[in-house]
Design brief:
Number of helices: 1
Strand content: 35-45%
Distance between the termini: 59 Å
Largest sheet: 10 strands, mixed
Number of strands: 20
Length: about 290
């Protein structure tokens, strides 16, 4: 009788354990589904034209860059053709006057290098969600080249200043920076940098190192580079695959953010002809 009771207890224990295990798996699956909710596109530009409802040329002098940002595709620095955007640094062959100013009102000196930079400031700005761009470079690993695809807080006080609330200095909350794709040609070949800039609590004081990492990619081929907010984290993806995560950093960017695409020349190293960053499309998505 005792043996039979023990046997029945074992069967009962096995069935309870099996049910608990199944319930746990279902709960885990439901949790996974909840995290990976469906994304809905709420903005996309596939660059069949230069749409001024989405973008504006941005003329600004930062990082001691040696080029001058010019508007309206001057010198072929911001070409849209055959369904893609081409942003370039171009050697104009002679020194030209530059109307770019830094945040302190100092004007950029004359330079023979001109470049393209566009932003969606006061055009397309979003709180959190997911930003993606499909892009490639014409070449990489050359001295002084510095192409980038990144986000900046919409209350940033750098040109163009067009709204009353654009009074926050970089990189304080309201003017925070998230770099989705950067390539520093002086140090890297087929490597890009991604990650958040950590605010140190004062104007112009940011930590560029602790939250950013370098990753390999064939930069002269098209790839999709993205960042998304997942709960409190920032998740960075290459062609849809997670490559890096800033844990707990997402909550530090509660503000609306706008997108920037630019190709910079970052040092005095000489360059000939031109460099190109080609962008197939840019989109923003929200979870539904």
């Amino acid at each position: 009788m005792k043996t039979k009771t023990t046997f029945l207890n074992l069967i009962l224990f096995f069935l309870i354990s099996l049910a608990f295990s199944c319930k746990k798996k279902i709960a885990k699956k439901e949790s996974k589904i909840e995290v990976s909710q469906v994304w809905e596109v709420d903005f996309i530009d596939d660059f069949n034209s230069f749409n001024t409802d989405n973008w504006q040329d941005q003329r600004i002098w930062v990082n001691n860059e040696t080029h001058c940002y010019v508007p309206d595709n001057k010198h072929n620095t911001r070409e849209v053709s055959e369904g893609t955007l081409k942003l370039r640094v171009v050697n104009a062959g002679e020194k030209l006057p530059c109307d770019n100013f830094d945040k302190h009102g100092k004007q950029h000196p004359e330079t023979q290098y001109v470049a393209g930079r566009i932003c969606s400031k006061n055009k397309k700005e979003f709180v959190k969600g997911k930003w993606t761009a499909k892009l490639k470079l014409s070449s990489n690993g050359e001295k002084s080249m510095f192409p980038a695809w990144w986000l900046l807080g919409a209350e940033n006080n750098e040109p163009p200043v067009q709204e009353e609330n654009e009074t926050v200095c970089w990189p304080l909350t309201g003017s925070g920076e998230i770099d989705i794709f950067e390539h520093h040609g002086d140090y890297h070949h087929d490597l890009f940098t991604t990650g958040a800039i950590v605010s140190l609590g004062n104007c112009d004081k940011g930590d560029w190192e602790s939250k950013r990492r370098n990753f390999p990619a064939t930069l002269n081929d098209f790839h999709e580079y993205s960042v998304e907010w997942e709960n409190s984290d920032l998740v960075y993806r290459l062609d849809g695959k997670e490559i890096y995560r800033n844990e707990g950093e997402g909550d530090k960017y509660p503000e609306k953010m706008f997108a920037i695409l630019n190709f910079a020349k970052i040092t005095d190293s000489p360059m000939d002809d031109s460099w190109t960053m080609e962008v197939d499309w840019v989109k923003h998505e929200k979870k539904i």
